[in-house]
């Protein structure tokens, strides 16, 4: 029992200090070191054949024209081969292609067309429809020409311009001599100057209320708008 207790009291060995570890799993004992040669793999005949390099053929390719042996020269074809070698005959109603410039007979050249043939030779005049190939739809009675009432004709009359209407002003108009020689006073110069405001990092405070806004008194209308609605006021 003491031996078992002493065995359990021993610290566990550190397996990570061995760099030659052969397995990723935890082992109670280190694997035995191999002193012999490494594993040798025996190649099969098929593998040995695939490992060999391909052979390059040095023979010259034959010409497309080759000699016919004497047995092929003396061969006699059968009746079946002779029938298959015949070209296929055209059908009974087949006619050869007509020439592009077919010579006309003298009677055709001197023929005089009748009035009926001249009438049939004229091109047809097609009616222009909204949708080609469709029959025109019947026009409803509401689209038929009718006379408008006096009130509709009065409403259709265009409106006239106002008697004092002077027309559109031109984009370019002459400036008077007094406007060109006018000198602005000090108040106009002061109002035309933009306000100088400092940035936030320069000490500008946007929440400062001016002295004029503090001393301003609201008008009765503004005071009335500030009051809550009577329907939202609860009676205690």
Characterise this structure.
- There is one protein chain.
- By secondary structure, the protein is mainly α.
- The protein is 28% helix and 0% strand.
- The protein contains 11 helices and no strands.
- The relative contact order is 0.02.
- The model has no long low-confidence stretch (mean pLDDT 81).
Strand content: under 5%
Identify the overall geometry. flat
Q: What is the arithmetic mean of pLDDT?
A: 81
Largest sheet: none
Number of DSSP-assigned strands = 0
Global structural class: mainly alpha
* Helix-residue proportion: 25-40%
| Helix-strand pattern | HHHHHHHHHHH
Quaternary form: single chain
Number of helices: 11
Radius of gyration: 58 Å
Poorly predicted regions: none
- First-last Cα distance: 92 Å
Could you write a compact summary of the structure shown?
The chain is mainly α and 236 residues long. Helix content is 28%, strand content 0%.
Topology:
Blueprint: H1 2-9, H2 45-51, H3 70-73, H4 79-85, H5 106-109, H6 115-121, H7 150-156, H8 177-180, H9 186-192, H10 211-214, H11 220-226
């Amino acid at each position: 029992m003491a031996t078992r207790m002493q065995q359990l009291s021993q610290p566990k060995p550190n397996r990570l200090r061995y760099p030659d570890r052969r397995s990723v799993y935890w082992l109670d004992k280190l694997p035995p070191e191999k002193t012999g040669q490494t594993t040798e793999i025996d190649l099969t005949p098929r593998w040995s054949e695939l490992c060999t390099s391909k052979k390059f053929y040095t023979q010259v390719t034959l010409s497309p024209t080759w000699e016919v042996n004497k047995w092929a020269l003396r061969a006699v074809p059968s009746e079946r081969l002779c029938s298959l070698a015949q070209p296929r005959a055209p059908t009974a109603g087949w006619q050869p292609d007509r020439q592009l410039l077919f010579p006309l007979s003298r009677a055709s050249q001197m023929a005089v067309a009748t009035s009926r043939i001249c009438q049939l030779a004229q091109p047809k005049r097609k009616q222009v429809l909204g949708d080609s190939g469709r029959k025109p739809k019947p026009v409803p009675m509401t689209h038929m020409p009718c006379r408008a009432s006096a009130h509709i004709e009065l409403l259709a009359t265009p409106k006239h311009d106002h008697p004092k209407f002077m027309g559109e002003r031109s984009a370019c108009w002459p400036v008077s001599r007094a406007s060109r020689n006018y000198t602005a006073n000090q108040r106009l110069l002061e109002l035309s100057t933009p306000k100088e405001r400092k940035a936030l990092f320069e000490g500008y405070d946007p929440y400062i209320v001016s002295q004029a806004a503090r001393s301003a008194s609201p008008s009765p209308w503004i005071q009335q708008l500030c009051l809550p609605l009577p329907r939202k006021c609860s009676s205690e």
